[in-house]
Amino acid sequence: MLVLAFFVFTVLCCGCTGEQNVVVVFTSLDKEFSAPVLKRFEKETGIKVKAQYDDEAVKTVGLVNRLLQEHKSGQVQCDVFWNSETSRALFLKKRGVTQPYASPSAKDIPAAFKDPKNHWTGFAARARVLVYNTKQLTKDKLPKSIFELTEPQWKDKVGIAEPTAGTTGSHVAALAVVLGREKALDYFRKLAANGCRKYPGNSTVRDRVAQAEVLIGFTDTDDVFAGMAHGKPINQIFPDADGMGTLVIPNTVMLMAGAPNADNGKKLIDWLLRRETEAILAKADSRQIPLREGVTVPEDGVTLGDIKAMKVDISAVSDTLNKIAPVVRDILDKK
């Protein structure tokens, strides 16, 4: 299926390099959030965007595999990868799939969110949260920590997304780095024994919580904000504020090695990394979190200062991801 998908996209993009004012971008940020931004770029610059979006079931993994296939085949079609997380940005860099580009727009982005060699740059983050059903749970009944979800009162009431795709995988890997592999696996064994249900993606977790199939679940801030904007009876908790904190996951953008439209790719990267773009994403239904100080957010929005961010080595998270995620998937499947 991967080879077929790669072939289809190659056919669709045939002639991309012959067009003088085009850029090809793969993005794993949900289409409902990324497409309006890319259309705005088109309107402001006149550069035609050919976008390949992800699939909720495979999320970032599907696009990463496609980028690897392009790189190995020597038939690179993608110019820019707008990735919805960090771990697989490092993964691609280590495999030579990206090339360095120091965008002038990134000068005021904190160094913690940039690759030292300029292979990727972060912007507009999300945080891992617990989404809960506001009709079923009152604030005095809410957990303060993810570790409380293994207790009897939460039996069969918790949901989580597939850990081998999307930000759930990064969260699982981060817990393994912070807690240690065995302690993290023990946690997921207890969670599974307590009847935690696994769903295809973060938005599915949110929707099942809204429908009260489960009452609380692991997801991202953008999914919760978007659900609230559509009237779903949900809200969110930033867990472990008194302990390890929660994982903050910026979007990342990178230029592909061998990009056929590299100059336009750089223009897109510059545009995405502007303060104005962070403000656009902060005001969108997804309420993404600016990495810079001083970017205006809506009254119900979130800044980095509102969150206790988990302190974790993102390089270690990237190295751990593909080792730990399948193990956790199997634990959840065998509950």
Structure description:
This protein is of the alpha/beta class and 335 residues long. The chain folds into two domains: 2-6 and 20-125 and 250-305, Periplasmic binding protein-like II (D-Maltodextrin-Binding Protein, domain 2, 3-Layer(aba) Sandwich); 126-247 and 312-333, Periplasmic binding protein-like II (D-Maltodextrin-Binding Protein, domain 2), CATH 3.40.190. 40% of the residues lie in helices and 17% in strands. It has eleven helices and ten strands. The protein has helices at residues 2-12, 31-45, 59-73, 87-94, 167-179, 181-193, 202-210, 221-229, 262-272, 275-283, 314-333, and strands at 22-27, 48-53, 80-83, 98-99, 121-133, 158-161, 197-199, 216-220, 234-237, 248-256. Strands 1, 2, 3, 4, 5, 6, 7, 8, 9 and 10 form a ten-stranded mixed sheet that branches. The chain is globular, with a radius of gyration of 19 Å. The protein starts with a helix and ends with a helix.
Mean pLDDT, nearest integer? 92
Number of strands: 10
The CATH topology assignment of the largest domain is: D-Maltodextrin-Binding Protein, domain 2
Number of domains as seen in the coordinates: 2
**CATH homologous superfamily classification of the largest domain:** Periplasmic binding protein-like II
Q: What structural class should be given to the helix and strand makeup?
A: alpha/beta
Helical run tally: 11
Cα radius of gyration in angstroms: 19 Å
Percentage beta strand: 15-25%
Low-confidence stretches: 1-12
CATH architecture of the largest domain: 3-Layer(aba) Sandwich
